[in-house]
From TrEMBL:
Protein name: tRNA N6-adenosine threonylcarbamoyltransferase
Enzyme Commission number: 2.3.1.234
Location relative to the cell: Cytoplasm
GO function term, MF aspect, one: iron ion binding
Segments forming a coiled coil: none
Amino acid sequence: PPSLTLLGIESSCDDTGAALVTGQPGAARVLSSVVEGQAELHAAFGGVVPEIAARAHAERIDSCVARALEEAGITLAEVDAIAVTAGPGLIGGVLSGVMCAKGLAAATGKPLIGVNHLAGHALTPRLTDGAPFPYLMLLVSGGHCQFLLVHAPDRFTRLGGTIDDAPGEAFDKTARLLALPQPGGPSVERTARDGDAKRFRFPRPLLDRPGCDMSFSGLKTALLRERDALMQDNTLRAGDRADLCAGFQQAVVDVLREKTARALDLYLAEAPAQPMIAVAGGVAANGAIRAALTGLCAERGVAFTAPPLALCTDNAAMIAYAGLERFAAGETDDMTLAARPRWPL
Ligand code: KG4
Ligand code: ZN
C-alpha cells in the first residue's frame, strides 16, 4: 500500500497544534509536530477560559500549520488529506480548528477528515510502537480517565473510568491547595520527590468495590483536611508540603495500579496474541505512575508502552495519525463536518 501523508490540526483545549505524519496504519512516523500552549494566557484565572482559548486558537492556528509544513520540509500540495479534531472539547476552539481545516481542504481540494480527540490519544501507541490490536489503553489526562480496549481504529470498549474527577484534575487541585504552580501534575510530582508517602494515609476510593471504575474527588477533601491541620500563620512548611504531595501521589498510583490489574484480567480473557498495555494523556507523564504500571506489566508478562511526553499531552501528530487510519480505511468527511463539544468514543 502507498505511503500516506496527513496534516493534523488540534485545538480542542488549550494547546494549538499542527503536525505532519507519514506512513501506513501501524507503521507511520512524525515529520513535524508544532504545539503552542496557552498556559500563560489562562494562568491568572485558575483554569482554561473558553473565550480566551478560542481567540488564541483562531489567532495562532494558521501560523502553526505553516510552521509544521516548513519543519517537515513539504508543501500543502504534497499532503494526501487534512485531519482535524472535531470534538470533544471546548466548542470555540474546536470550531477554529474545523474552520481552518475546511478552508485548507476547500482551497486545495484535499479530503477532509474529522477525528475524535480521544481516539487520537487512544491510537497514539499505534503511531509510536505499531501496537497490535487489541491492546489495553489507560487514558489519563486533565479531563479524562478511562480504560479502553482498542479493537480497531474505530472500535473501542470502555471497561471503566472515573466517576468524578480525572486524575490530572486531582493533581491540579492539589497543586492549587498547596500553592504550587499549574499545571499541577509536574509540580506535585516534583514536590513529592522529597516527601514521605507514608506519613499521611489518604483514601484509596473504590478499591473495595469490584470493577474498573475510579474516583479521585475524595482525595482532595482528605488533602484539604490534612493541610488545614498543618497550617500555621497561614503557611505550610516545605517538608509538610512534600509529604502531602507524596502521600497524595501514592494514593493515585495505588488506585491506578490496582484498577489496571483488574482491567488487565478482562483484557487477557480475550486471549490477545501479543498483549500490550499503553498509557496516554498528560498524566502518563508521571514517573511514579509509569513505574507502577511498568512493574505490573513485568509481573504479568505483558508489554508496556508509554508514548514520549510530547505525544502523551495534547498534540496534532496523534490527530494526523488517527486521520491516517481513517483515510486508509477509505473514510472521509465533507464540508458538513460539525464541531462537537461532546463526542463519546
Ligand atoms: O492530556 P493533557 O495535556 O490535556 C488534557 O487534559 O486533555 O493533560 C493535562 C493534565 C493536567 O491535569 C496535568 O496536571 C497533568 O495532565 N499532568 C500530570 C503530569 N504532567 C501533566 N499529572 C501528573 N504527573 C505529571 N508529571
Ligand atoms: Zn487530550
